[in-house]
TrEMBL record:
GO cellular component: cytosol; mitochondrion
Ranges for domain Pyridine nucleotide-disulphide oxidoreductase dimerisation: 51-163
Keywords: Disulfide bond, FAD, Flavoprotein, NADP, Oxidoreductase, Redox-active center
Entry's Gene Ontology molecular function annotations: flavin adenine dinucleotide binding; glutathione-disulfide reductase (NADPH) activity
Naturally occurring in which organism (per UniProt): Cebus imitator
Origin organism lineage: Eukaryota, Metazoa, Chordata, Craniata, Vertebrata
UniProt protein name: Thioredoxin reductase 2
Length: 179
C-alpha cells in the first residue's frame, strides 16, 4: 500500500514508486528535495538506496541496506559474508525475559575492505540502533571500520560492533557474556 504523499510525489515527479520504500519519512524527504528543486535551484534527487526502516512491534525489527538474499542475488554466494549473533539485552536480564529471538546480522562483501551491504537487527531499540548505523552504511562503511568502533556499554547497539562469527564458519552465534 502506497502512502498518499508517495503517490502524489510519483505523479508530480513522473516517477513511479514501484520498488521504492513506501515510508512516510522517505516521502517527506523526497517532497522536501522536490520543493528545493522547484523553488530553490537545487538539483538534488532522492536517493532510495539504503533507506533505514523499523517495524515497531513488541520486539522491534530494523534494517538498512540489502538482505542476505538480495546480496547473494546481486553478488553471488561466494562474494558475500554474513556476520551474526543471538544476544541477551540488559533489559531482558533482570526480569528474566526470553531473549532467544534477539538477533543481529551484518551482510558484507567478502573481499577486503568488506563493505557493509546491510544490517538487520531484531530486539529492543531496533529503530535507534538501525538509525545510528544507517549513516555509516550509507557512506560506505566496511566491516573493519565497524569492528574498530567502540561500543557503548551496556547498550543494544554495542552488539553490532561485537559481531565476529560468520555464518560460513558454522560456529554457534550465541553471545555468552560481555565481550
Amino acid at each position: 500500500m502506497q502512502t498518499v504523499a508517495g503517490a502524489l510525489l510519483s505523479l508530480v515527479m513522473g516517477q513511479p514508486s514501484e520498488g521504492r520504500p513506501e515510508l512516510t519519512p522517505t516521502a517527506v524527504m523526497a517532497g522536501r528535495l522536490l520543493a528545493q528543486r522547484l523553488f530553490g535551484g537545487s538539483s538534488d534527487l532522492m536517493d532510495y538506496d539504503k533507506v533505514p526502516t523499523t517495524v515497531f512491534t513488541p520486539l522491534e525489527y530494523g534494517c538498512v541496506g540489502l538482505s542476505e538474499e538480495e546480496a547473494v542475488a546481486r553478488h553471488g554466494q561466494e562474494r558475500v559474508e554474513v556476520y551474526h549473533a543471538h544476544y541477551k539485552p540488559l533489559e531482558f536480564t533482570v526480569p528474566g525475559r526470553d531473549a532467544s529471538q534477539c538477533y543481529v546480522k551484518m551482510v558484507c562483501l567478502r573481499e577486503p575492505p568488506q563493505l557493509v551491504l546491510g544490517l538487520h537487527f531484531l530486539g529492543p531499540n531496533a529503530g535507534e540502533v538501525t538509525q545510528g548505523f544507517a549513516l555509516g552504511i550509507k557512506c560506505g562503511a566496511s566491516y573493519v571500520q565497524v569492528m574498530q568502533t567502540v561500543g557503548i556499554h551496556p547498550t543494544c547497539s554495542e552488539e553490532v560492533v561485537k559481531l565476529r562469527i560468520s555464518k560460513r564458519s558454522g560456529l554457534d552465534p550465541t553471545v555468552t557474556g560481555c565481550g
